[in-house]
Design goal:
CATH superfamily: STAS domain
Helix content: 40-55%
Strand content: 25-35%
CATH architecture: 2-Layer Sandwich
Radius of gyration: 12 Å
Number of domains: 1
Order of helices and strands: EEHEHEHEH
């Protein structure tokens, strides 16, 4: 699993994930992802367009970060999941805590207007 952080204007950050968000992938990014999502940025878009597999441990990684960011008054949204990853997210009810957008651009626009 590869993670890239893209600081944007203001307090908006896009975090791009690439690879498999399974146990090995989550282990590879958990500390860095937790740090990136609980420090300075308050509006975070997680780009899932390059995530090819999502396991429950990956969902835990996303939920943990979203809860922490919400407690700080911030917000995390998900963007551009593949069809398979989107199905997993919806089945797990992830969209109840974190909105899912079809593209990074739509997610950024939604956070900028929030």
């Amino acid at each position: 699993m590869k993670m890239t952080i893209h600081p944007m204007a203001g307090d908006l950050t896009v975090i791009s994930l690439e690879g498999r968000l399974d146990i090995q992938g989550a282990d590879a990014i958990d500390d860095q992802f937790a740090f990136a999502t609980t420090t300075k940025p308050k509006r975070i878009v997680v780009d899932l367009s390059q995530v090819v597999f999502m396991a429950s441990i990956g969902i835990r990684t996303l939920f943990t970060a979203a809860r922490a960011q919400t407690a700080r008054g911030g917000r995390i949204v998900l963007a551009a999941p593949t069809e398979m990853v989107n199905k997993v997210l919806l089945t797990a009810g992830v969209d109840q805590l974190m909105p899912i957008f079809d593209s990074v651009e739509l997610a950024c626009t939604a956070l900028e207007s929030a």
